Amino acid sequence: MKGNVGNKLLIGLAAMGVCGLLAAAEPAYVDAVDYPGNAEGWEAFRQLERRLDHDFDQICGDSFCEGDYSDYQPLRYRCSVHRATGVLRQCTWTFAASEIGVEPTTGRLLVDTKTWRCPTPLAAGTRLEAFYQALSVPNPLFEPLPGTGKAIYESLIGCL
After folding, report:
1. pTM for the structure as a whole
2. How far is CA 88 from its chain centroid?
3. Peptide bond into 144 cis (omega under 30)
């Protein structure tokens, strides 16, 4: 009888350990494309990213793209979201640029590249739904973000 009670206790402790491991495996933050569930936010976030890329392409030649590099490209825009609350933690837009020339005596290509990580100004407690709602306009790059009054465009000025 004592062995049976001990076995039940061990099985109970093992089950609690497995449950604890499963709970610990649940991440606190996820990519916005995976909020509220796995890939459920993909389409909404991808649409926003496409509109931001379009806005950047429209202004690039008159603003950021007149420097040391001639080929600026937006790479990815991503946000982290608290899984339980839907509150944004951080958003960052990455960019790359390059300049390529030819060394005239050797024909060797001279390649110069650079990348940037441009954080988006977010107010504490900004929920993903409010973020999407504010940026659901045709030109989201210039739209003030909830709680900040700043547009994503402004964050690029000090970044690129």
Report:
1. 0.79
2. 10
3. no
Please state, in angstroms and as integers, the Cα–Cα distance from residue 145 to each residue in 19, 28, 72, following that order: 40, 24, 24
Cβ(77)–Cβ(48) below 8 Å: yes
Q: What is the 3-state secondary structure (H, E, C) of 125-153?
A: CCEHHHHHHHCCCCCHHHCECCCCCCEHH
Closest to 96 measured CA to CA, from 78, 81, 111, 117: 117
Report the alpha-carbon distance of residue 77 to residue 95 in Å, rounded. Answer: 9
- DSSP-derived 3-state class of residue 154: helix
For residue 125, give Cα distances in angstroms to 6, 27, 54, 87, 91.
48, 19, 28, 6, 13
Residue 70 half-sphere exposure, CB side, CA atoms within 13 Å? 4
Task: Give the residue ranges of DSSP H helices in the chain.
Answer: 2-25, 42-59, 128-134, 152-157
Q: Is 27 within 8 Å of 83 (Cβ atoms)? A: yes
Q: What is the pLDDT of residues 62-89, one digit of tens each?
A: 777 777 888 899 999 999 999 999 999 9
